[in-house]
Specification:
This protein is of the alpha+beta class. The chain has one helix at about 20-25, and strands at about 5, 10-15, 40. The protein is globular and about 30 Å long. It starts with a strand and ends in a 5-residue tail after the last strand.
């Protein structure tokens, strides 16, 4: 599976282990107005 994540400060990681996803979700606890979210994007290239 090929995907990438964007952290709340805009840093990106390609294909991190699935075990890191709970940590990514915990980043939402420290978001602010300028950095409100995180993202996980599948690199399928499809619509």
């Amino acid at each position: 599976m090929s995907y990438h994540v964007m952290h709340w400060l805009g840093d990106m990681d390609a294909d991190p282990s699935l075990e890191t996803l709970p940590e990514l979700v915990r980043e939402l606890e420290t978001t602010d107005e300028e950095h409100p979210d995180v993202a996980v994007t599948h690199d399928s290239g499809g619509p």
